Amino acid sequence: SGAVPFYGEHQAGITTAAQDRLHFVAFDVITTDRARLVDMLREWTAAAARMTAGKDAGIYGAVGGTPEAPPDDTGEALGLPASGLTLTVGFGATLFRDASGRDRFGIAARRPAALADLPHFAGDALRPEISGGDLCVQACANDPQVAVHAIRNLARIGMGVVSVRWSQLGFGRTSSTSRDQATPRNLFGFKDGTANLKAEETDLLREHLWAQPGDGADWMAGGSYLVTRKIRMLIETWDRTSLAEQETIVGRTKGSGAPLGGKAEFDEIDFAAPGPDGQPAIDRAAHVRLAHPDFNNGARLLRRGYNFVDGSDGLGRLDAGLFFMAYQRDPRRQFVPIQTRLARQDLMNEYLRHVSSGLFACPPGVRDATDYWGRGLF
Ligand code: HEM
């Protein structure tokens, strides 16, 4: 399958039609040498431009270099096409000021106000060792081997500069980011991504997705803020819940994805539409009602999550859920108020545990081969 253009005004992997597979990684920077960090970002950018075009990570490749040296590509993607690979980079708040308050790279003053630490939400069960990070890279592709190869090579290139803090594999996109895509299903069996921001909605993207020049941090103009939440889904409990109850919790029908009280998947939600008992068909605490722009000051998100199953938990249950990812212009006005409401009232909470959290400032796109990820910041 084809290659997604790497260069552009915005980074690829945000409005790109969501691919089927994910390998997400968060890194800690282990050097305090600013020049080494910048060199690595340059090398990463060059490698990313190559890999997203379906080429080896380095110019010699897996088998073209000298036999005496380790190859500049690890080789497991030899013979595989680009598979729609996108690589999207983001900077965490700890890059600007680390946990002990140090401004390691002289960039603390450039931290965007929108990169404000997320508050604690009701019910959070976050594990610090799989949360946060100085840098992140989202690799999406239609072939898991291609996504993993890309992350592995970036980690290899970054040796001595970064170390992997945590990473997450995802299979099965849980969102559509283009009107051309059919809506996929999450592990609760419901269509997910129906009311998402879509690539075709240019005006809405300007308003809700892309950081704008006047927003505060000029180097972020054309970029976007990514919130990640690893959400464990207690699927065994869910599977013992009646169909009617499941639909009440979500606020949509399981089959077609139509809003309760509506007919078809893409019908506008009518929160006043009556159900069989004359009461509103959509419960006051249904997920789609609490997350809806009407109840969140108009806030919208571009959701781009993936299903995960990380084996089992040793207690006879699948360690499964949703690796939630959402891009937005300002989390303080979008993710935070929506999640505050959901965390307090969502009927779905009984079946969910948020176990990891991340927030990253994803800079604008790389313009050409002389540009690199984060040039505007350094
Ligand atoms: C809508 C599932 C977590 C925000 C939906 C829909 C489903 C769903 C089935 C309806 C289809 C659609 O419009 O996409 C889930 C599951 C979650 C989860 C299973 C956790 C495992 C979250 C979180 C947020 C969120 C953490 C944000 C804080 C939204 C929004 C909508 C939505 C904004 C669209 C509401 C609308 O405008 O109609 N979700 N969701 N969801 N969800 Fe979630």
UniProtKB/TrEMBL annotation:
Cell compartment(s), UniProt: Cell envelope
Chemical reaction(s) catalysed: heme b + 2 H(+) = protoporphyrin IX + Fe(2+)
Keyword Iron-sulfur tagged: no
Signal sequence, renumbered to the chain: none
EC number from the UniProt entry: 1.11.1.-
Domain Dyp-type peroxidase C-terminal: 183-366
Cofactors that this protein relies on: heme b
Keyword vocabulary terms for this entry: Heme, Iron, Lyase, Membrane, Metal-binding, Oxidoreductase, Peroxidase, Signal, Transmembrane, Transmembrane helix
The record's free-text note on cofactor binding: Binds 1 heme b (iron(II)-protoporphyrin IX) group non-covalently per subunit.
Domain Dyp-type peroxidase N-terminal: 11-171
Protein family membership: Belongs to the DyP-type peroxidase family.
PANTHER family found in the cross-reference section: DEFERROCHELATASE (PTHR30521:SF4), DEFERROCHELATASE/PEROXIDASE (PTHR30521)
Protein purpose: Involved in the recovery of exogenous heme iron. Extracts iron from heme while preserving the protoporphyrin ring intact.
Name of the protein this chain belongs to: Deferrochelatase
Species name: Micromonospora zhanjiangensis
Gene name, Swiss-Prot/TrEMBL: efeB
